[in-house]
Specification:
- The protein has helices at 17-21, 48-57; strands spanning 4-7, 40-42, 63-66.
- The protein is α+β, with helices and mostly antiparallel strands.
- The chain has one domain (4-66): Alpha-Beta Plaits.
- It binds iron/sulfur cluster.
- Iron/sulfur cluster binds at residues 7, 12-18, 33-34, 57-58, 60, 62-63.
């Protein structure tokens, strides 16, 4: 099953750590927030490590990983 990543728009305060440690997965918008805030999407193949690093790096705990059962 494909792992999914979820970014809570309400928690994201734009620290920028997530897209710094996961540049191939996440990007910044013009205000410094993660562009993908408020979305949930499949983690592409080979990106699981970056997804985990992004979740670990976020001080607001805005990023969660969802593993379908
Ligand atoms: S590290 Fe967390 S608070 Fe900072 S931009 Fe990423 S999701 Fe938002």
């Amino acid at each position: 099953m494909t792992e999914r990543i979820r970014i809570d728009a309400g928690r994201c305060t734009g620290h920028g750590r997530c897209y710094t440690v996961a540049p191939d997965l996440l990007t910044d918008d013009e205000e410094g927030f993660v562009e993908q805030r408020g979305t949930e999407f499949d983690v592409p193949a080979g990106m699981a490590a970056q997804a985990a690093d992004a979740a670990d790096a976020c001080p607001e705990m805005a990023i969660s990983l969802v593993r379908p059962v």
